[in-house]
Specification:
The complex is a heterodimer. Chain A is built from 14 helices and four strands. Chain A is mainly alpha-helical. In chain A, strand 3 and strand 4 form a beta hairpin. In chain A, helix 7 packs antiparallel against helix 11 (200-211) and helix 7 (130-149) crosses helix 13. Chain B is mainly alpha-helical. Chain B contains one helix and no strands. The model of chain B has no long low-confidence stretch (mean pLDDT 74). The chains are: A mainly alpha, B mainly alpha.
Amino acid sequence: PEAADLRALSRHLYEAYLKYFPLTKAKARAILSGKTADNAPFVIHDMKSLLEGEQFINCKQIPTPEHQQQMSALTVAHGGLSGAHQGLECNILDAVELRFFHSCQSRSAEAVREVTEFAKSIPGFIELDLNDQVTLLKYGVIEVLIIMMAPLMNKDGTLIAYGQIFMTREFLKSLRKPFCQMLEPKFEFSVKFNTLELDDSDMALFLAVVILSGDRPGLLNVKPIEQLQETVLHALELQLKLNHPDSLQLFAKLLQKMTDLRQIVTDHVHLIQLLKKSEMEMCLHPLLQEIIKDLY
Amino acid sequence: LKEKHKILHQLLQNSTSPVDL
């Protein structure tokens, strides 16, 4: 009966994952390997194709009506930045990194909303102290977003804009500092992480484990969080045994990734703080500001 | 904490509706 409960939990989290995250690993890998019936993604590999890509994405619609509606509302809610963004579009090529960075921020803010909805679907999460729910999200969400970048990446580049665009790693490395430094550590993490060959159902459990970390600073009531995490950890261990019977120590290898993630997030936050100082025109999305402020 | 994280708090409290800043 215990194993049956754990399997039910795994199914529940997988269903929530499919509900809230529009671009699954299965879909991303199909796009990256050219196996989709749709058109291949638009490739951004230099400044010219970046400018073309911006037009390309402006003409395209967001995948589902539900997401389109939510994205529009989030953009309206964030009118200050949208205005700044449009103003920047008139600028010369020098501003292209900033403009791209603003687009990344808008997508990141939307992704935080998706992760929040996923967190709320974890059984027991919404019963936790509300302050602790905030803390778990504040500290967990960037780690989750970095994990979720892995399926979109290969050694040569990354899918962006819901899989409609592929941006090359070389192009990202060619941007001026510190923009060129922002994604390289994520590529390094992703290439190693992808060798574990997790599928979407494994990912759903791993993301829940990361969110339910009982050692986040400032938590008021650690015990119920640890209890929830222990149950999800059992579900993950069972899932990996069943789904990857030949992959030795996969559970241990996956847990080790949680340590690597903390350093990547710390470095990421430092880069953003550096950007805030060096790029006077740059304004941070208020939701991302909340998360990053006093983080590490 | 709630005061410092108004949007996160809103996201947690509202169902699937987007944030109204």
